[in-house]
Amino acid sequence: MVGHGTHVASTAAGSEVQGVSYYGLAEGTAKGGSPGSRIAMYRVCSPNNGCRGSSILAAFDDAIADGVDVLSLSLGAPSFFKPQITDDPIALGAFHAVQHGITVVCSAGNDGPDPGTVVNSAPWIVTVAASTIDRAFESDVVLGDNTVIKGEGINFANIQKSPVYPIVYGKSAKKKDADVNDSRNCNTNSLDQELVKGKIVVCENLDKTYANEHMDEVKQLGGIGVVLIDYDSKGMASSFGTFPMTVISSEDGAKVLSYINSTKNPVATILRTTSPTKYTPAPIIAYFSSRGPSTIPKNILKPDIAAPGVNILAAWMGNDTAEAPEGKDPPLYNLISGTSMACPHVSGIAATVKSKNPTWSPSAIRSAIMTTANQINNLKAPITTEKGVAATPYDFGAGEVSPTGPLQPGLVYETTAIDYLNFLCHHGYNITTIKTIANAIPDGFTCPKESSIDLISNINYPSIAITNFNEKAGRKVNRTLTNVAGDGNSVYTVTIDSPANLDVKVVPNKLQFTKNGDKSSYEVSFSAANPLKEDVFGSIAWSNGKYKVRSPFAVSSKRDN
């Protein structure tokens, strides 16, 4: 998408600009995550050539040579194309960058909500899922009986606020030879123009296509508006320009259809969009956000973190007439959704943490971001997915990113270069292949004699993922924490949140630190009385009363393919 780079760069580190909006919507002050940072942009994608691996690797090399502190990559392969690390330019380039002390943040992908769709899941990458914010883009439907149905969408329609326009169900406006489901969906060549012209048409998103596709057919036939019933609540407002269109839930869709079917001459109108704030519940994990578990392999829990990625207002090119509603100048700011938008939120926070703690490694910065994340929404209830069920680490990793918590995490998990090399060994690569992946290998390094995919769980990562879990054998993993809270005696006590069918023990249950940089280790034992029927989740948290360091875990009995 042309303009994508401008949008994500301004989100990461744009200067403060007051009084911005998208044609009056979402009005306020815009500011990037780290407005004091300097931005270098490296073009790796083009309309004709796409995003070539050679361009991506060249950009990594240039960024390393330029001495950047954080790399923000709002791109990735589609989830069906699962490249091995040796064939993945992002994973390879990121490995080299991390070896040079650069934090690499990547989008998790937009192929959700199906499980196992997360991309950019190498353990040296910070992988970011997308969530909603507490701002909505509301375009309501008013029926002839004055019932108001809440809808979502961005339109600048100039039609009457009173319900005076005839409204018809797509199925009832079917061409004689058209398929019924095609007409319900308002597909091309499925509607009778005489029955659509001058009316608001109710369409159903049966084939889960983009909302605008339904608009195009109705608009072409002379319809004056569309109410789209979406059976998967996506929580994402599409932009319809000046055409009156909105999207409603299946529950509200039933109310609209009931009104149409029970009224001799049904009428309605669609109201112009408003952008109310303090919307609840928020955040919600976005419908499109790619989900875990990671498949290369499952023993790293991905995504790592979630951040705002739905209808994000950020800078735009200023000459894009395609994005301008009819009669309007091209926008200077645009509203876009995707994990591409979530990624630079975390990149900006990473840059801020680096500026306050210049000696911290990329893994320390990632740990600070993950272990201080939030799991509670603005209703003081657990964060949910778009379906209203509690989110798991496969949806949002450690949780929703905190903009300030990572500045003072108390303790961090340092994932070392040896951890990453051991990961490659456990993943099945020999030392010859590892040398082609890594820029440099410490003298004398060899793969451990015991290397298996199960041992990946033991690298010092801020979360824990276990596959191939056998309840009879159980599993033990180790972790080491480093004190970054300064000198002075401090004792942290563990709290375990685990499901009833999984027994989790931590030894020792207290960790003591006396100096900045002190390290202390613990062992986690997982066992169960009966086989696990599904993946289970929980967390391990260390607290000294001032700082709380929380690590999620996921345990699965499924074998890694």
Automatic annotation (TrEMBL):
SUPFAM superfamilies: Subtilisin-like (SSF52743). The keyword Protease applies. Residues 458-555 form the Subtilisin-like protease fibronectin type-III domain. Transmembrane segments: none annotated. CDD domains: PA_subtilisin_like. Belongs to the peptidase S8 family. This is Subtilisin-like protease fibronectin type-III domain-containing protein.
